[in-house]
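Hi R.,

As promised, here are both runs. First protein below:
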Amino acid sequence: MSKKKPQSGSLGDQLNADVLSKLKSKKTELKQQAVEREEQEKQRRIEERKRAEANKSFEELLNESELDWKSYKK
């Protein structure tokens, strides 16, 4: 039996250029997908916040108001 001696160098050195370029393109594709997912999640949260604001009752809006209604009372 012959023993294989360990190869020196990095994994990038051992892979051929075609496989390396495919891996790099896949990496950039996955990064782009992650950015798109984050943007979609951000848009979803904004829409959800708008919907919640539109569905608030008068009491909730009054409680959130920064005006001091007691100062207008006579």
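And here is the second one, sequence first, then its structure tokens:
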Amino acid sequence: MASLFPPGKGHCRLLDAGAGIGSLSAAFLDRWRSGGLGFSRIELDAFELDRTLIPHLSRTLTKYGCDGDLVVNIREEDFIHAATDSLRGSLFSPVLESYTHAILNPPYKKTHNDSAHRLALRKAGIETANLYSAFVALSVALTAPRGQIVAIIPRSFCNGPYYRPFRRFVLERTAIRHIHLFESRNKAFKDDDVLQENLIVRLERNGIQGPVAVSISTDDTFADLTTHEHPFERILLPDDLERFIRIPTSPEEDAIERSPAIRHTLADLGIRVSTGPVVDFRVKAHLRKTPEPGTVPLLYPAHFVGRSTMWPIENLKKPNAIEHNGETERWLYPNGFYCVARRFSSKEEKRRIIASVVDPSAFGNVPALGFENHLNVFHEDKHGLPEALARGLAVFLNTTAVDEHFRRFNGHTQVNATDLRLMRYPSRAALTRLGRWAREQEHLTQTMIDAELATLIA
């Protein structure tokens, strides 16, 4: 992280928000003392709220000496409140002078909508749902023009609706200069329960956006580090209103980017995708372990194995059925063919998108189906799809090309309906042809699926 900062000169004002025992500040100061940064003087503000860490933080920083060229301020206070008070010009709090540099490994805890932190951030014009994004946003706000911010944070901010305001805040105020990815979630952070990828990002306050350097390593040894530069248009698509941040892993465009045949939105195809509407704990009174008169199938990810729909499943920990009545009617879809994709993949799973076909023949003569909240459902205005279209859509989503493309903007275990909605697809006719081909095959392998897609889009 310290190596990502470009050399400077003159007076450096360094912010370490959530300093812990001072590891990041130490790395920055090590580089400076070895002549790698060029500053004549550094003033460091190290914020740390945990009192048990303050003695360790103090020992870490005092070894760099205070010869007039280094001033260390250990601030044992809440960074969010100190920063928001300063930004709002509170009469009762000291104003924080703008920083030229910031280095941070912020906490990852979510913030409740009515929490003191959330309210303070909102008053400072920052809307975000997690402490890590709050720390980064505040660091950006406190940094002077052309100032540099380097942070290690979860990749979750790159996509999804929750972080849309944060993405907009950062993209309007900074230029992205460098992104580093760790290919393995469990090697770089093996001591933590990491359910998503973390990345390191360098931002420049008020910078003019240009190409972005993207580096990749398997783990924190950086032994196999590779770096490529990409035009910003590959990072943020010009027509993407959600402002998803995509991270290419190679200089070449992937198969989805290259193909002129994959340019259609779901709206173009007349298809919609929705999160499964049945939230089981909210309708407990209507759930049944096994089917009985007056119930319809309730489908979970466990009901889909490969190309097959398996229902009901004996000894399933989840219910197999839901009552069909006036209260549940609004959560149910008419029986028919649908394509579903799991919302969550397990840690280190080979595939991010796992799609299946809902085959109505598996349920007998039932009028409706319930889709549980852990599924994304592709449908036509809450009705089923033509069989060939449903099968073709599932085949397309299960290709290696789609998986590789999807991973460029999704770095965690969740697949949101918004993510699927913003992807591009082959035409309806092409998906239908793909579905007819799939139906004719006795067995489908990954090699067959990938080869058929290559033929289709060639």
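A quick note on the second one: Residues 187-194 have pLDDT under 50 and may be disordered. Let me know what you think.

Best,
J.
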